[in-house]
TrEMBL record:
The organism of origin for this protein: Alteribacter keqinensis
Gene3D superfamilies recorded: 3.10.20.30, Nucleotide-binding domain of ferredoxin-NADP reductase (FNR) module (3.40.50.80), Translation factors (2.40.30.10)
Protein name per its UniProtKB record: Oxidoreductase
UniProt KW keywords: 2Fe-2S, Flavoprotein, FMN, Iron, Iron-sulfur, Metal-binding, Oxidoreductase
InterPro entries per the UniProt record, alphabetical: 2Fe-2S_ferredoxin-like_sf (IPR036010), 2Fe-2S_ferredoxin-type (IPR001041), 2Fe2S_fd_BS (IPR006058), Benzoxazolinone_Detox_Enz (IPR052353), Beta-grasp_dom_sf (IPR012675), DmmA-like_N (IPR054582), FAD-bd_FR_type (IPR017927), FNR_nucleotide-bd (IPR039261)
2Fe-2S ferredoxin-type domain location: 217-311
FAD-binding FR-type domain boundaries: 1-104
Cofactor(s) needed by this chain: FMN
Key word Membrane present: no
């Protein structure tokens, strides 16, 4: 189910980052969300529909949502469409909030590692920590202060907990920092894939339990841009998957009853066998060998006609 919203405000945070305020249409309330949550946005441009995930940056609220979007120079068009074509007063639809990255209540200390626009989920999480008196710190890497989204806000609200690193000034987050955090620390990492992997690897090699290292990985979803419709054959059924639906949703609408959990290509719960056809894999779960005969329909798609099996 989708929620109709209207763009009520647009703020240029940095030369390449815009913040959009989304309010409900018809004076309705928005679902309340938890810190670290994100939404899917469905933005139509001509015959295309760009489906993108964005973290909610404001405090949990029924009245409005805020998202911040980096315009990618070599992106697939979604961020450019938001920056160049979305205007105040425009309507669109969004998903209900989803929460796969949130403060762990068992942590004795929370450490946030942000790379570039990866700062967005941590804004609400740091507010949550401060409101509850929870111990936390932020390590935030950006090219320059000029390119550092929310720099003034963070420097004003969390100066004692934050360390900035500006790479064009030769500053860099040392993955070895993870060794300095006290026992009971939970790490939260969001940024480019290489950034996330470097810190995660250092943490696991240091001895952090896997459950204490949290990554924001929704960037994988729809990462290659426009979704082409395709057809899936499951036993005697022929299922047409449009550009906005996932294969998982299309299958279950037809009564397939495929189990699922994360809906982000991370857990493998919805895994199905591929008997014929070409697959666009977008998961972070299957090995390259497994991808020859398996897929995760929550994020991956087919090209043309594919044949699948639940076995």
């Amino acid at each position: 189910m989708r929620i109709p919203v209207v763009v009520s405000k647009i703020i240029q945070e940095t030369p390449h980052v815009k913040r959009f305020t989304l309010k409900p249409q018809l004076d309705q309330s928005l679902p309340r969300f938890h810190p670290g949550a994100h939404i899917l946005t469905y933005l139509h441009s001509g015959s295309e529909c760009f489906v993108r995930s964005y973290s909610l940056t404001n405090c949990p609220s029924h009245d409005y949502y805020e998202i911040a979007i980096l315009k990618k120079v070599r992106g697939s068009g979604g961020s450019s469409c938001w920056h160049e074509h979305v205007k105040r007063g425009q309507t669109l639809t969004i998903s209900y909030p989803r929460n796969f990255l949130h403060p762990d209540l068992s942590a004795k200390h929370h450490v946030f590692y942000a790379g570039g626009i990866g700062i967005t989920p941590f804004l609400s999480m740091m507010r949550w920590c401060r409101k509850r008196g929870a111990s936390f710190e932020l390590h935030y890497s950006a090219k320059t202060k000029h390119d550092c989204a929310f720099y003034e806000y963070i420097n004003r609200e969390h100066p004692d907990q934050t360390t900035f690193y500006f790479t064009r000034e030769g500053e860099r987050i040392d993955p070895g920092l993870v060794k300095q955090h006290r026992i009971g620390t939970h790490l939260y990492i969001c940024g480019p894939e290489s950034f996330q992997n470097e810190i995660k690897t250092a943490a696991l090699h240091t001895g952090y339990p896997k459950g204490s290292v949290h990554l924001e990985s929704f960037v994988q979803l729809h990462s290659d841009g426009f979704n082409n419709p395709f057809t899936a054959r499951l036993e005697e059924k022929i299922i047409n998957v449009n550009q906005e639906d996932t294969l998982l949703d299309a299958l279950n609408k037809e009564g397939a009853g495929i189990p699922f959990s994360c809906r982000m290509g991370q857990c493998g719960t919805c895994e199905v066998a591929v008997k014929k056809g070409d697959i666009v894999h977008r998961d972070s779960f299957l090995t390259e060998e497994e991808r020859c005969s398996r897929m995760l329909p929550c994020v991956s798609r087919g090209e043309g006609v594919i044949e699948i099996s639940m076995k």
